[in-house]
Amino acid sequence: MVHFNEKNPFTYRQKLDKNIETAVHELLDSRAESRIYVYLLRKNGARSEDIINGTKLHPSTVRELLSKMYTQKVIYRQKIKTETIGKNPYLYGAVSPIILLQRRVKIIESRLNKIANLTGKTNGNKFVQITIDHLGGEP
What predicted TM-score, i.e. pTM, was given to this entire model? Predict the structure, then answer.
């Protein structure tokens, strides 16, 4: 069993990565998506083959999730020009974690408003409108 030890940077980094992955999992649909997202954040972009090797996920899982995450705008991609014959690979990158948080806030606001207005009109003739404001500076 590996124990957390600040003097062992490898163990400290593993613990930190696992905590980040767990936090990101709250914003994404699956652990595998979280692993891909955190990997892309750490590497500041990567090709699908690098993601497969770095996350230890099955190649078909990675390719399927990259497509899904791109469609959901969780990641972005850019074609890489190569001199070899065949398809040009993509370089994938993760959108800012702040953007993911802002999207989650909008979803939570929407759900809270639906719940708050289940019984119809309240406060006279007005529906309840719940908003979540961020504290501090610019998002």
Answer: 0.72
